[in-house]
Design a protein that fits this description.
Protein name: F-box protein
Shape: elongated
Strand content: under 5%
Radius of gyration: 28 Å
Structural class: mainly alpha
Oligomer: single chain
InterPro entries: Chloroplast_duf
Order of helices and strands: HHHHHHHH
Largest sheet: none
């Protein structure tokens, strides 16, 4: 609305209608275009923040469910308590509540899935596992472990790559739109400052045209919620990364009885 109002004022000035206060329209449109430029030059996109916090809420609920499951099974060990605390702290560090200074990068170089899950003791060890033929041990067999490893490979090759590819496209579009909006309003503010009888109608025409283009760009960026689309793809890539890490963490546990039941 700020950009549209300023562009309308510049357009009225360009018509050169009798009785129009050029100085008043010039001053008002310049201030409005400058204010619009200042509002657009920032890294905070409300739709993207909503999607980011929604993903954080989902992950915290998932972690809460895992902790409730451990409590329902029986007396948790010190290792399980420590593991749960590390996961809570890691997730809290990955998704910051403050919006300024420490928030997630809104315009990264490229989309990379977040790796927030802390390494457990089972991930740090690499002992040899022993299967007794085809006899199940806590629901695990060699065939089942092989299938799970194949699932991990599919996630790496297909699902994660698909979301990274689409996310990078959305990121590039978001960067172009985020840069174009303030650039156009800045040009419009500069041109509107030179509006007046001495410079003819061209300064006002340029200001109105740049303002109209800026309005279209901003509408597409924020109305189409391009930032949220990018964040959605990044969250989906994060989710597949989490599934991959969870499976790899389970398979790296050498003691089959300590694994989640196969």
């Amino acid at each position: 609305m700020i950009t549209l109002t300023a562009a309308t004022m510049a357009g009225v000035t360009a018509t050169g209608s009798a009785g129009v206060s050029v100085l008043g329209l010039k001053l008002a449109s310049t201030l409005l275009f400058s204010a619009g430029t200042g509002k657009l030059v920032n890294k905070i996109q409300p739709s993207q923040l909503v999607e980011e916090q929604r993903n954080a809420t989902r992950l915290f609920k998932l972690l809460q469910g895992q902790i409730k499951t451990v409590l329902a099974i029986g007396s948790p060990s010190k290792e399980e308590v420590k593991d749960a605390m590390e996961k809570v702290l890691a997730l809290d560090k990955a998704y910051h509540l403050p919006l300024l200074g420490v928030m997630l990068e809104k315009f990264p170089e490229s989309l990379e899935p977040a790796v927030w899950l802390p390494k457990t003791q089972s991930q740090k060890t690499n002992k040899q596992k022993h299967f007794n033929g085809k006899v199940e041990s806590n629901g695990w067999t060699e065939e089942l472990e092989l299938e799970m490893r194949q699932v991990v490979e599919v996630i790496k090759r297909k699902d994660s790559e698909d979301y990274k590819r689409l996310g990078n496209k959305a990121l590039k579009m978001n960067k172009v739109l985020a840069a174009s909006g303030p650039l156009l309003t800045g040009i419009a503010a500069l041109e509107s400052a030179f509006m007046g009888p001495s410079n003819g109608p061209w300064a006002a025409i340029m200001a109105a045209a740049a303002g109209a283009l800026a309005s279209a760009v901003n509408t597409f960026e924020h109305g189409g919620q391009v930032g949220m689309v990018f964040e959605m793809y990044r969250n989906n890539a994060d989710f597949f990364k989490l599934v991959q890490e969870s499976i790899e963490s389970t398979l790296s546990e050498s003691d089959l009885e300590k694994r989640e039941n196969g």
